[in-house]
Amino acid sequence: MSSPVISVSGLGKRYYLSHEKRQDTLRDSLTQQFRQLGRRLTGAATEPEGEEFWALRDVSFDVQQGDVIGIIGRNGAGKSTLLKILSRITEPTTGRVRLRGRIASLLEVGTGFHPELSGRENIFLNGAILGMSRAEIARKFDEIVAFAEVERFLDTPVKHYSSGMYVRLAFAVAAHLEPEILIVDEVLAVGDAAFQKKCLGKMQAVSRSDGRTVLFVSHNLQSIRQLCHSAVLLAGGQVQTSGPCARVLEFYQHGLAGPVVHVVPPPSADLLHCGYVTSVSVETLEGKPTSVFDVGQPWRIRVGFRIAKAQDQFVIAVGLLSPDGSPVQTSWFPPRNLAPGDYEAAFIQDKVILEAGSYTTVVGLSSHGHAFQQFQSERLDISGETVVGTYVCASSGVGVVLNSMRQELRKIP
Predict the structure, then answer these.
(1) Single pTM value for the model
(2) Where are the domains of the chain?
(3) Model confidence over 367-392: pLDDT tens digits?
(4) Is the distance from CB of 346 to CB of 407 less than 8 angstroms?
(5) Does domain 6-34+50-255 have CATH number 3.40.50.300?
């Protein structure tokens, strides 16, 4: 395989959020200034004032030539910071970025435009900022103007342009000056629907016919789905998952529904006299509650339940449903007799490796083969491309995996 055109390894960006202290008097202000001057003159180490904030932490991924990658995530996830580092606008705190090829970035409306210059002059100015020669700009000039649809206003200062005209001209310059890598932030939202469609078509054309690489940040998931082959989901400054676009978008949309809710229905009157589930928790083997796991990472389901009346041939079972509701996996304890009391069952998954996707856990209680409580509970999100061990594509037609989980049962004192 050829070397990636973008290689991001252990990338981190730290900021300090300043909490300025109020200076009530001129004396307070002067005192603070003299203290800072004294530290500099004596070479004393000074700690940054303010709260440490990591916009990105330990971000790693590779992009091959010709790939169209969608960067998605909530506001504040670190998307814009990542693109600014890739565009060499800001330096990373940790890690490194290796780029192979010329980059054109369109991160903000009118970036690199001078408001007093005309559209014509700004095409040459912006092209030069992007590293293009005057001859290259002149060769593409007519195509840029035609794409931006600003012929009538070409000799008008751009300070009189609307935001839509700004973004049309800025995108036209970036897309037509033949960069090997095109980085586009959420700027297309400024243009009208027809122009957005035109931009998507242009990005598809440059990636397919010219083999250029496109990184596209957008909150418009339909545009991401239409344009991108794969996607990277950022959350809290870290890569939450990456891979084929459809799967990452599904994972993201599940997360938008809100935090995982521990779903345990209240027991009915007949269950109060028989037995019922009191708690369900999905967690790591270290005991950390979470619903997100990498492919191949072991996980565990804990189920607390109460036996109100002695049960013969009692069975507790858990299962997984695929995103379309099909059963994927079922595990259960052998039938046993249980005395009244509180119990906890643990089902440990350390053998079967499911494909990436979002699953729903199902919990059931039965006695003598008759189920007296069954319900859907927590969500289980499996993400990532790395596979450790034997891969079982359990949700793609190989049937239900039976009793594959290691089991533990204890009575709670």
Answers:
(1) 0.56
(2) 6-34+50-255, 269-412
(3) 988 888 988 887 787 765 444 444 44
(4) yes
(5) yes
